[in-house]
């Protein structure tokens, strides 16, 4: 029979073991609580995030605040609450992982938590620095390292160099690599002289040649419309025959000094535009006014584009085209005036078809249609700086939300249009400089977006040009790149194109700088296409 005394002792021992297990569990829980689960640790980390945000704010205001007019204040810096919330969520996730492996060892737990928080703070500081700089329109930074023996060799080579936020260097931006202590210092170029084209006698000669082309086309078109052959035009008696001969010789062999003098005498002694419009005004006075306004806008555009090119605000091609149109119109009016053709509602459509956008006029258009057409062309001439821009809707581009919301949707929009060839993002992500390659036309296209409403661009529109100039220079100096199995070298490229998207509402000053960039690109034989996005 079992001894009741020993049974009692065994029962007490089991009870004691159970009590000890409960006490041990409670002790472990108590030990775990103050280390991890109470709000004080989370609040302490949140305070460290706030301190990092304040430090970044002070650094930005100190380094670039004075380069703005008026100087930047903390109210100009973007809010960091989103980045702060993300950091705290990540802290919650990681602290749970640390609890699962180190809750019983306060020393190990503390060390792990400190390393974790240091990495989160590093990532948070790098993120808000990038976001606040880019929100201001600061697209470049200077890489700054700690200049000590612990700096990675790769980061040492990056030190003191300028990089683009939308084109990270090898290894990523400062602070992105594990335990990276480097910093991205905002970069705004100092005042640089405005770029203007190198204009020499060749430009004047090009304008004269453009005007000559206009004269020659006008004679050819006039003859095609009203005479059976150019020989008939030359055979006309009097001034018009002599003028026709000189114009034809000008367009083929060139004129002697005496012929040039006679040519100028004929033009100078011809009836003025006011005389040419008299007959038209008698029969259609409102149409005469519309044509006069149109004619004035054509000649004004020729003058303005020449001046704009000299200032770097447009291309030589624009200036030549405007001068050719002016020469064409002058000659057509002259030919209509000194001949029996005259200017009228029936002859104007033929005259206009040789002008820019003139071919869109319907044959047999009424006087009302003619007036509306002339008024539209006049508006285009007055607003010629904006006229060449494309417009796009439903592109999914959201300006002001960073590169992912701007550049990527614009690339996708262009890829959907299917006009630029292969989208390199699909086969060679992060390819250098270019985003599309058309192997048929040998055209390499770079795609960029600029939010012109960023603080730095509204403060000084010239920064838009310098930003675009940086893109254009990279395209010009492109040598070679290879990603995955795709390789492209400069000697394969025949045409380089820059596709730029901007939001609506560009100011006149900003528009001038965009046009300056187009002219600069032309000087390097790079095409630049601007798309205005309607959000």
From TrEMBL:
It comes from the Bacteria. One of its GO terms (molecular function) is deoxyribonuclease I activity. InterPro entries: CdiA_EC869-like, Phage_head_morphogenesis_dom. Residues 122-184 form the Phage head morphogenesis domain. Coiled coil: none annotated. Residues 406-531 form the CdiA toxin EC869-like domain. This is Uncharacterized protein. It comes from Notoacmeibacter ruber.
């Amino acid at each position: 029979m079992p001894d009741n005394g020993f049974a009692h002792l065994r029962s007490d021992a089991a009870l004691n073991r159970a009590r000890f297990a409960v006490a041990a569990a409670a002790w472990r829980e108590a030990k775990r609580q103050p280390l991890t689960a109470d709000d004080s640790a989370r609040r302490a980390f949140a305070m460290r995030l706030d301190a990092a945000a304040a430090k970044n704010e002070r650094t930005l205001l100190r380094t670039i605040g004075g380069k703005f007019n008026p100087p930047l204040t903390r109210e100009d810096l973007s809010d960091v609450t989103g980045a702060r919330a993300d950091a705290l969520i990540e802290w919650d996730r990681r602290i749970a992982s640390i609890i699962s492996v180190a809750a019983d060892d306060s020393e190990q737990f503390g060390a792990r938590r400190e390393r974790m928080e240091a990495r989160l703070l590093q990532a948070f500081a790098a993120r808000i620095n990038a976001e606040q700089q880019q929100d201001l329109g600061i697209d470049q930074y200077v890489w700054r390292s700690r200049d000590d023996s612990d700096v990675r060799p790769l980061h040492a080579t990056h030190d003191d160099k300028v990089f683009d936020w939308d084109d990270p260097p090898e290894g990523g931006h400062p602070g992105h690599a594990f335990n990276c202590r480097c910093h991205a210092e905002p970069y705004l170029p100092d005042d640089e002289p405005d770029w203007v084209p190198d204009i020499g006698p060749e430009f004047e000669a090009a304008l004269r040649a453009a005007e000559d082309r206009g004269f020659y086309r006008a004679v050819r078109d006039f003859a095609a419309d009203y005479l059976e052959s150019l020989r008939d035009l030359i055979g006309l008696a009097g001034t018009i025959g002599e003028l026709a001969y000189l114009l034809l010789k000008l367009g083929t062999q060139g004129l002697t000094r005496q012929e040039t003098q006679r040519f100028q005498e004929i033009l100078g002694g011809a009836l003025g535009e006011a005389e040419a419009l008299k007959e038209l005004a008698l029969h259609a006075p409102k149409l005469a006014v519309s044509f006069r306004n149109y004619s004035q806008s054509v000649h004004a555009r020729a003058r303005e584009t020449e001046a704009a090119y000299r200032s770097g605000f447009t291309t030589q091609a624009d200036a030549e085209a405007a001068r050719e149109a002016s020469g064409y119109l002058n000659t057509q009016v002259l030919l209509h005036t000194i001949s029996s053709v005259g200017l009228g509602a029936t002859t104007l459509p033929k005259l206009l078809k040789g002008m820019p956008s003139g071919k869109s006029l319907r044959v047999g258009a009424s006087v009302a249609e003619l007036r509306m057409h002339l008024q539209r062309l006049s508006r285009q001439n007055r607003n010629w700086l904006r006229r060449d821009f494309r417009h796009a809707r439903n592109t999914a581009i959201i300006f002001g939300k960073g590169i992912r919301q701007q550049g990527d949707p614009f690339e996708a929009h262009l890829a959907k249009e299917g006009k630029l060839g292969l989208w390199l993002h699909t086969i060679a992500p992060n390819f250098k400089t270019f985003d599309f390659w058309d192997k048929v036309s040998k055209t390499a296209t770079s795609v960029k977006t600029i939010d012109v409403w960023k603080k730095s661009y509204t403060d000084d529109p010239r920064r838009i040009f310098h930003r675009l100039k940086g893109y254009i220079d990279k395209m010009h100096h492109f040598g070679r790149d290879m990603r995955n199995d795709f390789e492209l070298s400069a000697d394969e490229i025949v045409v380089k194109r820059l596709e730029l998207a901007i939001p609506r509402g560009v100011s006149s000053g900003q528009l001038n700088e965009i046009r300056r960039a187009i002219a600069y690109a032309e000087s390097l034989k790079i095409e630049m296409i601007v798309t205005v996005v309607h959000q």
